[in-house]
What we know:
Layout: H1 7-17, H2 21-31, H3 33-40, E1 55-64, E2 67-76, E3 84-88, H4 96-107, E4 111-115, H5 130-133, H6 136-146, H7 151-166, E5 177-182, H8 185-195, E6 200-206, H9 219-222, E7 229-235, H10 236-241, H11 245-256, E8 260-265, H12 281-295
Parallel strand pairs: 3-4, 3-5, 5-6, 6-7, 7-8
Antiparallel strand pairs: 1-2, 2-4
Amino acid sequence: MCDDSTIEQEDAALKRMKLSRREFAARAGALGGAGAIAACAPTDANLAAPPEGTTVGRNVEFTSQDGTIDAFFVHPAGDEKHPGVILWPDIAGLREAYEITATRLAEAGYAVLAMNQYYRNAKAPVLGSFMEWRTDEGRAKLRPMINNLSSDAVMRDAKAAVAFLDAQDAVDTSRGVGSNGYCMGGPFTVYSTAAVPGRVKAAASFHGGGLVRDDDASPHRLMQTTQASYLFAIAEDDDAKAPNDKVELRTAADASGRPAEIEVYPAPHGWCTIDSPVYDKEQAERAWARMLVLFAGL
C-alpha cells in the first residue's frame, strides 16, 4: 500500500521534477483544481476536466449502517441508463483527483459513485492531495480513520453504495455493478463483490495493497463467495516485496472459478493516481484500457 517502502520511488520522481514534497503539495494547493493536478503531474498528461455538458456530477449523501456516507456521483448527461460503478480512492481519500477520475469513467458510459471511505470521521476532502498523506500532519490525521476500515465495515459501505446506485435514474439495474479501487481501495473492490455478489460483477484493483493476507477475510479468500470477474494490476515494487501474491491470487481465482486478469506492470506503486509524483501516463492508460474491457461485460 502507500507505506514507507514507496517513498524512494516518489523521491526519485520529485527529483526529476526538481520539487520537494512540500513544494509539490503546495503547488497543487495554490493552483487549485484540475489545472493544479495537470501542472504537478510528472508527465505531459492532459488531466483537465471533460467538456462541460458531457457529464453530470454532484456531491451526494446516503445512509449506511454506520452513518451518513458522503460521495461524488457522476454520470453521462441525458436520459439514458448506464451500469453503476463504485470507485474507492487511495489512502489519501476522496479529493479532486478522484472526482476527475470518476468523471472520466462517466464519460466512458458509466454512472460512478466515488466514495469517501473516511465518512465515519469527516466529510471529504479529508486531505487535498496525495502528498499531504506524506506529511506528519496528514498521517496523524488519517491514522485513526484508517483503523475504522475493517473488511466488515467496508462491506457494509459497499452494500449502502449499491443500494444508492440502484435507486438512481441514471443507473441501469438490469446490468451488473462494477468496482474499481486504488492502493487502499484495491482490496475494497473485492470486499464489494463479496458484500453484494448478486450485483457487483466486476472489480478492478490498481496497485492494491493487502490483497493476500493470512486471515479468513483476506480478499483472495473471499473470491470464492463472489460472482465477479477481476483485474489485478500490480505495481512492480509491490511484486518485488511479495512475489507470491500474484500466484496466490491466480490460485484463488482458478479455485473459485472466477475470471481474473493478473499482471505486474512496469511501474511503481501509485502509478495510476493522477496527483501522485509517480503517476505514469503510459502504464496508467494501459491499465485503464483493461478496466474498460472488464467493465464492458457488466
